[in-house]
Amino acid sequence: MSVELNIQSGERVGLFIDGSNLYAAARSLGFDIDYKRLLDFFQHKGRLIRAFYYTALVENEEYSPIRPLVDWLDYNGYTMVTKPTKEFTDAAGRRKIKGNMDIELAIDVMEMAERLDHIVLFSGDGDFRRLVEAVQRKGVRVTVVSTIRSQPPMVADELRRQADSFIELQDLESEICRHYREDREPAAERPRARELPESAPAVVADAEPLRGLSPANPDGLLEDEEDETIAESA
Question: Which of 112, 121, 176, 206 has a CA positioned 20 to 30 A from the CA of residue 133?
Fold first, then answer.
């Protein structure tokens, strides 16, 4: 289906992608993001100035499943913003991993606002409502991309109300989803979602974000009682 983006011809556009949030939203809808197609799609809708991708990385591990994804995006038109995850012990003595990129994303949005006419925010995190309001006062229009069709919905109602427009992620599926060869397993039979287009390194197929991400747990906190060996993040 055709998606109305409400992006005017010649508008300076910036994409700000909350990596783990977008991954979780797409996964809840049963498809995988092809980041090359996503970039191409928005390049044809306006004057794309920059596409930022935010993700936290688990350090001190021999192999990080998300690292090939980060490297591929870095070489193929995205501006990568990463930082190490933090490990801490809560009051109950449980080990947790936290990888929140909200501050980094907010700073970049504010710094870029004067150079943009339209911001496309790929996140459903309600914490960004105030950020959206702030850049709107600078004359910048904001489109939020997330989903209300997952159970529960991945987008906070207050963020959706504040945005100038909201795009249902599922409506973009035909434009940005990753296609698989016929000899591959159907998506419903694969044990894990895959993120990259066919031209990307095959090793990235098993990359996943911080588990536990949901509207009730936007930081994607992990507890060691659920998984004592944490080896994945996005």
Answer: 176
Give the pLDDT confidence of 160-204 residue by residue, as tens digits. 999 999 999 999 999 999 987 655 554 444 444 444 444 443 333
User: Could you tell me how far CA 189 lies from the centroid of its own chain?
Assistant: 24
Q: What angle do CA 39, 43, 45 make, to 5 degrees?
A: 120
Instruction: Round to whole Å and give the CA distance between 162 and 176.
Output: 25
What helix, strand, coil percent values describe the chain, rounded to 5? 30, 25, 45
Q: Is the pLDDT of residue 230 over 50?
A: no
Beta pairing, strands 47-57 & 12-18: parallel
Residue given tokens 């991945």 in the structure block: 154
Picking from 148, 141, 90, the residue whose alpha carbon sits closest to that of residue 118 is: 141
- Sheet order of strands, 118-122 included: 79-84, 47-57, 12-18, 118-122, 141-146, 165-168
- Local confidence band at 62 (pLDDT 50, 70, 90 cut-offs): low
What's the pLDDT score for residue 182? 57
Domain boundaries 15-223, corresponding CATH code: 3.40.50.1010
Is the pTM here over 0.85, yes or no? no
Q: How far is CA 31 from CA 53, 178, 232, in A?
A: 19, 7, 19
